[in-house]
Amino acid sequence: MTIRRHLQGAVLLLAAALACTACDGSRGEAEIWRFAIEETIGSVQWSYAKEFEARIEAATAASQRPVDVQVYPYGTLGTSDHVTELLRMGTVHFATASPGHVGKLIPEAQVLLLHFVFSDDAEVNREALLDGELRRLFSDLYREKGFRLLAIFQEGWQVWTTRRAVSSPEDFDGLRMRVMTSPLLLDAYRAYGASPTPLPYGEVYSALQLRMIDGQVNPIFAIEEMSFYEVTDHLTFANHLPFVTTVATNDVFFAGLDADRRSLVSRVIDDLQQHVFEVQTRDNRERLDSMLERKPELQVSRLDAAQRQAFRERSLAVRRRFVERVGPRGEIVLEALLDAIDRAEQRARDAEADPGAPISGSVGPGASRQPDP
Ligand code: 6CS
Asked: Does residue 53 form part of some domain?
């Protein structure tokens, strides 16, 4: 089915849903906000969107026009690309937009796909993704495409899930690795000698089962709920990249809300940062255990410093490739990300050295710029 036909179908589906809502007297006055996510029911994005729904609906329940947030999980409106297009058209009002897919439309967002740029410490990365300058740059890029950026957050370490063991770049030689559809991911895996294959999320399981691909990469919670572990044998933590997503709203829709509703959205989104960090930490831990219970023969390995260094060295050329592909604005966002990580690492070091000291914002070149991981 073409994207256009699929979108027409999705728009008809939404129109029908809206008509039914209007038929329901108790809901006739409700203002519908549609939130589409790129993951299935039970995922990290699902928890995020459902919490958004609960908080927005509770806050507006007593008002003249309560808000009814409707969450559309992955598949109900098509692939990630379809969801992005529906957000652009204003058919959905809120959506998650992962750089692994939205990087086709906003090439600079692919900076969040570069390997071995982030800290090894998830708390540091959380801080860095809240950095004001980084977010200002991203906000401008999103505005150019008709979106308003609301949040950037991580969902856990990307973990390689493969049929054969991969502890060195040589092990990737010729390996058909499924990647999300942003072009930079082709460079990222070619640098290791792999043969990257872009596919939508919904096609990964059957591609692994049919041996059209040899591996894929995703956080643990996704590997569990999409059952990728059933059709692979090795899980490898290289901690080369956290899975990062963004949340956006349609700019025209958002500008049309009254000031109270806009600040309610901002408040809820800010509060959800902590919520989603806790959800992803818990889900990634618990689901590794549950996968191992179901498939004890699964081989789980964590690369050591020397093994990571071999991958890191290969990955450095991809930073240059990113700037070549994206141009001067790519260089600016890369610098901003590296600076944000440096600052967050410095603050973490200061806090460790003197736990009682006030948090400083001092900056210095940190591990993200150094040749050693
Ligand atoms: O691999 C993917 O395509 C998807 N993975 C996750 C964890 N979220 C959304 C994304 O589209």
From this structure: yes
- Pocket residue to mutate for ligand 1, from 157, 243, 280, most atoms within 8 A of Cβ: 243
Whether 218 lines ligand 1, by a CB cut-off of 6 Å, is: yes
b/e for 124-152, b at 16 or more Cβ within 10 A? bbbbbbbbeebbebbeebbeebebbbbbb
How many domains, in total, are found in the chain? 1
The pLDDT score that the predictor gives to residue 372 is: 35
Confidence of residue 256 (pLDDT cuts 50, 70, 90): very high
Identity at 94, one-letter amino acid code:
F
* Residue 317 CB partners (closer than 8 Å, separation 6+): 191
Look at residue 373 in the predicted model and tell me its pLDDT.
29
- Say yes or no: CB of residue 342 within 6 Å of ligand 1: no
pLDDT tens across 22-70, in order?
Answer: 344 454 589 999 999 999 999 999 999 999 999 999 999 999 999 999 9
**CB distance 103 to ligand 1 below 6 Å:** no
CATH number at residue 310: 3.40.190.170
Residue 373 lies in a domain: no
Measured by CA distance, the residue closest to atom 2 of ligand 1 is: 201
| Residue 126 structural domain | 28-251+258-353
